[in-house]
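Issue: ligand-bound run for adenosine-5'-diphosphate - logging full I/O for the record.

Environment: standard queue, default settings, no custom constraints.

Inputs:
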Amino acid sequence: MTGSSPRDIALFTALISSLAVAVIVCGVSLIFRGTVNWIETGFVFVLSFLVAWLIYYKALQRFIYDKIKLIFRNMHAMRVERDAFKLDMNKDVLGDVNKKVVNWAEDRMAEIKDLREKENFRKEFIGNVAHELKTPIFSIQGYILTLLEGALEDPNFNRKFLKKAAKSVERMTMIVEDLDTITRFESGTMSLDLEKTDLTELTREVMESRDREAEAKDIQVKFNKNYDRPVYAKADAFRISQVLTNLITNAINYGKKGGTVTVSFFDLEEQILVEVEDDGPGIDPVHLPRLFERFYRVDKSRSRHQGGTGLGLAICKHIMEAHRQTFNVRSEVGKGSVFSFTLAKA
Ligand code: ADP
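Outputs:
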């Protein structure tokens, strides 16, 4: 009977019952009349079969439907689609219900897994924020206490400690501003101001603003070729300058002393591909899939020491996603890294 529909079960049971009735009628007829009236017996058989089938079918339908309705109602309380209530009583109802319940359970499992991942991500993120803010807060606290305990009166130390405390405040402000930028991108409240932008001019300005850092490490920041004509793209100039600043600053910070940072533009059919390449130590492939995550760092202590918030690449990714463009990295240990993004041509 596995896989049978209520209709089949009702038919089978009605057949057995009506056969039993027919046998009883034959028996009674034999006892009282000494003979069997086959027409009468046939009529009783057909009639009892029809009545039994109707009763069984309806009862079974009611019973199964009531039970299933209960299951679905409970599932519905946990969001089950309306369609799931539609059952075909002429088919294998229980098998059908089983399939629907299994599908529903699988969907819920996937949802739970997703929620768990988000919850872990949220916990990790809060932990990271606390950790990042702890360092500057503790150092500000330290400097203030030292000043209060007497260093304030010491002209050799008071300005020095105040300057150090101010530097830590500056770092905290940077972290909070970067977090605010990410939150605004994630909540969709950050709007872009797209305009025709000359990428060569924008890059030149960023390169000039990084002159001091580059000089300090004897790094040459240059274009791959002489761009004597503008390269126009549809972009939010301020945000793209933020991306370029981040990539060029990283290339200088993590690049090797005396190295080179090269910015190139490539003409794709409908887009411009921008690449920022360095000849630094490169990044191990194991880090690449997580590199654009908030606070992800390859060399944790070194990067933090170099002053980065650990949010730069996450912001770049958000900016490029908001432009509906790509943002990528390729890197080879010992050879260097290439960070690239595309922009629509203007
Ligand atoms: P940070 O503020 O730490 O620089 P980013 O999000 O800008 O944060 O970068 C994340 C990490 O990626 C850095 O800490 C560094 O480990 C690695 N990284 C970024 N750019 C480069 C690069 N050009 N070469 C090597 N490592 C890099």
